Amino acid sequence: MKQVKEVLVSPYRGSETTYEMVKEQIEARWGEECAEEFDPHTDAMPFSSWLAQGYVVKKGQKALKSVTFVEVKDENDKVVKKIRQTVNLFHKRQVEKMT
């Protein structure tokens, strides 16, 4: 059976700040060792990304919180503002392969 890390394509485009935010939450839940091994490109994704890759979030799991900024552009493709958006992520320990 393939490891979770071998088959995933993550939509991760986060900053160092968001990486640290998620890493701190992982450490609080699963310990320092898990946090040190954390790879944002393969270990945490939104529900829809896990689902698209054949995984389902285990019942009762609570999301990790991350933040992203969505750019709003005018008709000339100029950024007029950035909107802060919370993103709910699930760690690979919180998912299982669909059967």
Keyword list:
99 residues, alpha+beta, three-stranded antiparallel sheet, two-stranded antiparallel sheet, 5 strands, 31% helix, globular
Describe the model.
- It is built from 4 helices and 5 strands; from the N terminus they run H-H-H-E-H-E-E-E-E.
- It has one domain (4-97).
- The strands form 2 sheets. Strands 1-4-3 form a 3-stranded antiparallel beta sheet. A two-stranded antiparallel ribbon has the order 2-5.
- With 99 residues, the protein is α+β, with helices and mostly antiparallel strands.
- This is N-terminal domain-containing protein.
- It comes from Candidatus Kaiserbacteria bacterium RIFCSPHIGHO2_01_FULL_54_36b.
**Distance, first to last CA:** 13 Å
Shape: globular
How would a textbook summarize the main sheet?
Answer: 3 strands, antiparallel
**Strand portion:** 25-35%
Average pLDDT, rounded to a whole number, is 90
Strand order of the biggest β-sheet: 1-4-3
Q: Tell me roughly what share of residues is in helical segments.
A: 25-40%
Order of helices and strands: HHHEHEEEE
Quaternary form: single chain
Number of helices: 4
Count of spatially separate domains: 1
Poorly predicted residue ranges: none
Roughly how many Å is the radius of gyration? 15 Å
Number of strands: 5
